[in-house]
Write a structure and sequence with these properties.
With 173 residues, the chain is mainly α. Helix content is 64%, strand content 0%. The protein is built from 9 helices and no strands.
């Protein structure tokens, strides 16, 4: 068995046993919600709740680019085209507030277009990867606003980080 499979098994065992000690460091005084699955979490959780979880979890210091980039590519390829457009649009909107125009990003990143509705999965992956490396706070904001992408990430490290979310779902079960 590979160490990756052992790592996944250990995480799932910890979660199954109710090991939720990482949840105690939240500073929110709001009641803890129960979620049935990721879609339920994505629909019912507040933006702030998602942002707080992603701010602690999704950062280049915790998940190196060498592991995140292939995961982003696979995840973006799996989401629906209209959801992919929304993700790209969010990245462009946030980056524009930092003074980066969509046309400049198109040239700099080698995108096929700067129109989110015309972007293919490869273009959105390049945009997401650029944002993850250079503007991790924007990446976290977009993931909080467009959480559909997170459910397709499968790397064990990403899975471990997202275990915080899974523990929240399983906390009272």
């Amino acid at each position: 068995m590979t160490s990756s499979n052992e790592y996944k098994r250990q995480i799932m065992n910890d979660l199954a046993q109710g090991n939720t000690e990482s949840l105690n460091d939240t500073t929110s005084s709001e009641p803890i919600n129960e979620y049935d699955n990721f879609d339920d979490f994505a629909q019912r959780s507040s933006r702030e709740e998602r942002h707080q979880l992603f701010r602690r979890s999704l950062h280049p210091d915790r998940i190196p680019a060498s592991q995140m980039e292939p995961e982003l590519q696979k995840a973006i390829a799996q989401i629906k085209p209209n959801e992919r457009d929304d993700v790209a649009r969010e990245f462009f909107n946030h980056l524009k507030k930092r003074g980066l125009s969509d046309r400049d990003l198109e040239r700099q990143l080698g995108l096929s277009t700067h129109h989110p509705s015309r972007m293919n999965a490869d273009d959105v992956t390049k945009l997401a990867s650029f944002t993850y490396h250079n503007h991790p706070d924007i990446f976290q904001d977009v993931m909080a606003d467009q959480p559909v992408l997170i459910k397709f990430l499968s790397n064990p490290i990403v899975g471990a980080v997202m275990g915080v979310v899974a523990a929240k779902w399983l906390q009272r079960r």
